[in-house]
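Journal club side-thread
Mid-discussion, someone asked how the predicted structure for our own chain would compare to the paper's figures. Pasting it here so we can look after the session.
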Amino acid sequence: MSDFRLEHANIPSEKPHDMAKWYAETFELSADQHVVRGDGVLIAFQQGTPINQPSMLHFGFKVRNMAKLHEWRDRFDKPLKVGPEFTSFQVLDPEGNCVEIYAENASV
């Protein structure tokens, strides 16, 4: 096992507090000013120019199973992309950052 694990993401934002609020409300996380926390999730939004390059950069939230993936997909009304190992869909946050929500396929 590696000594390393991803502990947090630091995302530049024009409106850090608004972004933290959107992520907290949208993904059922908790927000404290510009920081969003959840089980295994810590995202800090810092004042800066948004990245919003969805074709080049995204981050993903893994859900427990396919049923949960379908629940989340229904909230966003997005098509699923089925790959050999994962099934996913993507949404854009208010500043154009791409968020992928995915689950492992049952056969993996």
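Post-session note: The chain has a mean pLDDT of 91.
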